[in-house]
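hiii, so i know i said id send this last week but things got crazy w the move. better late than never?? heres the sequnce for the chain we talked about at the cafe, plus the structure i predicted for it. fair warning i was half asleep when i ran it
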Amino acid sequence: MNIGTRLFAAVALLALFAGASYAQSSDYETIQSFKKRHQGLSQDIASVQELAQCDTLGSEIGRLESEYAQSRALLNDGLYPESLETSILALREQLKKSTERLVLAEERRKDRLKIEEITRQSEADGRKIEVISKQNEEYRVSLDALTREVQELSARIQKLTDENTGLLGSIKALQLESRKDKESIAKLRELTDKLNANIRDRDELIVKMMGSLFDEYAKGDLTEVQKKNLLTIAQDNDYVSNIVTTVDGNIEYVTTARLTPQDVKVIRDQQGKISVTWDGIKPFLGKLYPDEQTRARDITTVDGRLLELKRGTDEAAWRGMHQVFTENNVAVAAFHSGAEFSANLLAYIDEQLKNPSRQQHQAFRRKVWDSPIKDQWLPLVSTSELTDQQRGDIEARIALWDKKIASLFWRWVIAGIVGAALVAVIVVLARRKKQPATAA
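okay and structure toks below
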């Protein structure tokens, strides 16, 4: 064999040896790589703390199996007595146990939280029971006090009602006598003032009684038993009946007594307090009634009486205003509304303009219009009843009457001056005739 042939054989043998060595090195690295990743996954599975991470690790196991599937034979030999399948199965079994461990820990945590919540709820219930027991005792004491207060208020209201009936009878008797002496007028005013005071006191008691029941109800959500207790108090003390009786007494008063502007203002103020209080307690009072029919009947009754009182007070105001005209012989026709007041007053002034009388004008201005109508009565009339336009028309017509009277006055003044001048001339001429002739 020549040198060339031997050299080629040596090179070929060296290449074959190098290829075998490279193949053995690549197989070794594959096996070591698999072992390293397998070990890393095993450690991650062993230390996992959250269930969400278990899903990620499951995906990593699947990816490891897929990547090394083509090297199954090599790994089976290199991992002996284990294999690729048993290694992957071991990881999945390990992941399963870690998952079960985490699930169990989560259930224990939830159980512990639930136990803590139950404990807290139990403690809260215990405190709530203590609070409810205390509230029940306070409610019982408050209910007893309310019962006594309503009974006392009802008795005082009834006493004032009886007294007012007597006063109103006395006032009517004096009015029927039509006596104008100072003693009768003073007595009538005394009785009226006492009746007004009683009415104010009774109205205040009614407002207080309504407020007491409402305040008790407004303390909180009441049980059905507590609502029934409040209704019993209301019914036993003629709650609605007392309101109706009080309003009825006020209606009788305003429809029969002669009211001053101050009386009307006081009655309207009291009426407003009763109405506001009643509107406030109506919703709660309705909840106390066991049946709709009774509730609707009582509430409608009070609403109707309050409306009637308002109309009666308005009518009393118009009646009081007309009495001012009548007592001063100012013949304005009766009126019951702002429209009638304006129309009748304008008609009266127009009639006076036809034949102006200074005496009638002065009586109207000084005793009727300037005071008390304009300064005391009209402020009690709302602009919805007597509009600004109507007020302006009346003032304009009165101003025209003023001018007519002023013109008439100056006409008489001028006539007086002319008459006086004529008298003076006549006197001078008469004196000259009586004087003797002077000697030449």
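btw The domain at 137-327 is CATH 1.20.58 (Methane Monooxygenase Hydroxylase; Chain G, domain 1). thought thatd interest u
miss u guys!!
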